[in-house]
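Input chain follows. Return structure tokens only.
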Amino acid sequence: MTIGTPTTPPRRKIGQKHLQQDDVAGAAVMAEEGERSPLMLHISMTARDDGDDDEEDGVEKKVNEETGIGGTRLSSRWKKISYIILLMVVLKILLVLSSYYAFKDRRSFHSRLVVTPIEEAVEHTIDVGNNMTIWFRTWGTHPKNYLAPDEYVPALLFVHGGPGQAVADYKNGNKRFFDKEALFVVEVDQRGTGNSQPSVRDNYRNMEHYQDISISLIAKDFELVRKYLGIESWVVWGGSYGSTIALNYCMLFPESCTALLLRGIYLDTKKELSEVYSRRAFEDDERKLNLFNNLYDLAQREVKRVEGDDARELDPNDYKRLLQVYESMITRGDRTAIWRWTSFENNLMEDRPEMQLDPNHIIEEKFAEAQNVAFFETRLWLHGTFEEPSNLLAPERLVRLGNIPIFICQGIYDNVCPVQNAWSLVNGLKKAHHRHPRSDDPGFLQAYFLDANHEDTDPVMERCLKKIMNEFLEMYSSSQGF
């Protein structure tokens, strides 16, 4: 299901020139409106041969003799040929001049730019205080000195999900969606994840540094990165919990956001948690019910361990209490709890048997990522849902996105970020003055609801993500006059 379909011209790579020809006879100079391209010339000249040359010459000679006027008077036919020759000369001069200036402009433009593939991405770190650093990498098209890269091509901020994943977990997969010749891409390891230090991935004891973590704190880190790179504004791309962070970032700093591209919407609400972390959500699905019971049983044993055998049984539908019990186990480095939590979520998303994890058997090469994700999921969800609610659907927050183009891809079979979340966001945005793309209102909202699941590797979801990226680039090219 699609809300709106933009009618935009086919995508053009930024700076690409186009040569067209017109089959109409004569000379024509064409230049595509708003595009820096050389004059494009097509000349078709057909010589007329009507067999009346002698007759015309005779008429000309007779007229001269009768009038007594000395010299030779050009016939109408020769006048036309002279005009054509003159026009050809003028057009030739214009073509040479335009080609020269176009070449000069292209040489000046490209001499300032470097295209860096994702495999050769440049790594950076910045200090954010309290002995913490944020790691990020950049690739794509940029000036040699990296200053103000968005003056040449749009900059894009990739917001990873999890929460608790890191750039390395995507294994350079973003090159499927981001054209290195059309974008300047910034990929950030969020606070405490991946290569940002101190990292929970390295040691569970580092969890103590991030008890105050919030999506607003992550947003402020993004602003530091943006200013460090001299970027005026950038496209913000986020999927799953990355959509949560991306939405909040653009609400806090709308002037920093050129556009917002989202997948698998998560909104930090109680309803979302209840649909994943309560038994009633899976009563009609035996496979998922078994997954939940495995998660719940460990939490119940923990409650009895802490409170004694006489402790009241943990309510299987009390999702807040379930999260609190798991957070307590995770922060003390309980490997079984960390793996049980991560395998539950993984197996909910994955329908393919070969991609599912055994909740009772830890895979060491995957454990560091599991530790990172388990901590940041429980901590951020408890914070954003109960302690300081994010309120992403509040009208006063949604209205701050009013002038930002928004593109959404949502799978209707998403088991982790249910489709109702995306519908709630779309309806809220429409009430906040985002309108259909063919309307005259400034807001732009394009949402696709797909026969797909949560992962960006789902073939249908992957096609949608490529589609909205192309739609944005077409919109950007049109607005910038490329």
